[in-house]
Specification:
The protein has 9 helices and 7 strands; from the N terminus they run H-H-H-H-E-H-E-H-E-H-E-H-E-H-E-E. The termini are far apart. By secondary structure, the chain is an alpha/beta fold. It has 2 domains: 10-50, no CATH class; 55-223, 3-Layer(aba) Sandwich (Rossmann fold), CATH 3.40.50.150. The structure holds S-adenosylmethionine. S-adenosylmethionine binds at residues 57, 82-83, 85, 107-110, 113, 134-136, 151-152, 155-156. This is SAM-dependent methyltransferase.
């Protein structure tokens, strides 16, 4: 006789288990983001949410949130996250009680992520928005964000060209990495110095490197 806890699991079983587990974690922790992830698992079974919310991705975003708090403070009228994927970082920022953020908007060029992102951020109501857009085609003056975030710099062809679209003096938080072997990483850098040179910010408040198992992530916080 097979004991229930050792029975073989199908993908469908595992999917249902993941939903139950994350829903339990959401109830236990009171996290709106965890609740959003449970909803994504249920409503968008093909979204790669396990990749977007894996240990390393969360680590890089916790690092971003801590350093942002330390060097730029807690208050933002509007945060725009470009290349925001499923909206994990805006949700993490909105969830942190130390911050006072009126709105966070996740922009991504991939129309397939918009609905997933909306589901993930649904617990934050009007404070969370998801928009399908090419970051090179946006009017940043009209957007009027007091913080522009791009943790997908390794995914875009011309970082300096994109930064030139932002109004002078805009505060930015940027991340890139040296993970060259991933085919969608078209703009990796080999070092923090190279990232600094690539971005050529007018002012830098923070520049740092976070070594991960397979790659190093680089971050700059400053103004254009
Ligand atoms: C794999 S994800 C994010 C990885 C990153 N480490 C992170 O989590 O912040 C990169 C995202 O950038 C988006 N992207 C790439 N080029 C873009 C563009 N021109 N405008 C807006 N989004 C873009 C992709 O659609 C994708 O969802």
């Amino acid at each position: 006789m097979t004991h229930a806890s050792h029975s073989p699991r199908s993908d469908a079983d595992w999917h249902e288990n993941a939903y139950d587990l994350v829903r339990g974690l959401a109830a236990y922790s009171g996290s709106l983001l965890a609740d959003g992830i449970a909803r994504v698992i249920a409503k968008h079974p093909h979204a790669n949410i396990a990749n977007a919310f894996n240990y390393k991705q969360v680590g890089c975003k916790l690092w971003a949130r801590e350093k942002l708090f330390d060097c730029a403070g807690p208050r933002y009228r509007k945060i725009a996250v470009l290349g925001g994927w499923y909206g994990v970082l805006p949700a993490m920022l909105l969830e942190d009680p130390r911050f006072d953020i009126a709105t966070a908007v996740s922009y991504d060029i991939d129309p397939a992520v918009e609905e997933v992102s909306r589901t993930l951020g649904s617990g934050f109501g009007e404070r969370f928005r998801a928009v399908t857009a090419d970051m090179y085609a946006l009017d940043y003056r009209a957007i009027g964000a007091d913080l522009i975030v791009n943790t997908s710099c390794e995914h875009i062809a011309d970082l300096a060209g994109w930064l030139r679209l932002l109004p002078a003096g805009t505060r930015v938080l940027l991340q890139s990495n040296d993970y060259f072997s991933e085919p969608t990483h078209i703009s990796c850098v080999t070092s923090l110095d190279e990232f600094r040179a690539q971005a050529a910010l007018a002012h830098i408040d923070f520049a740092g490197a976070l070594p991960m198992k397979k790659y190093t992530r680089f971050m700059l916080i400053g103004t254009v």
